Amino acid sequence: MQNMTLPTVHMNGTSRKDLQEGYSNAALELENFIEAWGRIEFNARDYYVTDGAWSRASDERDAMSAKLRDVREYLQAIQDHLYA
User: Fold this and answer.
1) Cα 54 from chain centroid (whole Å)
2) How much is the pLDDT for 64?
């Protein structure tokens, strides 16, 4: 991610170990959520009774999936920084 503000490890701040652990745990939980998200039954038969609902639902789901990818990239960038 470009122009991202990364944590600075220093004597008065949170330890590198605690930061690494926190972001690693969050990333793992996010991956678990993304897997569960992908297993949700999502198809047109649940939307076709309302005109245009399937298209709107698909667009909304795609937008949510993009946000999940953004969070994944954010966590990965911080982890890369902390493990460098």
Assistant:
1) 24
2) 98
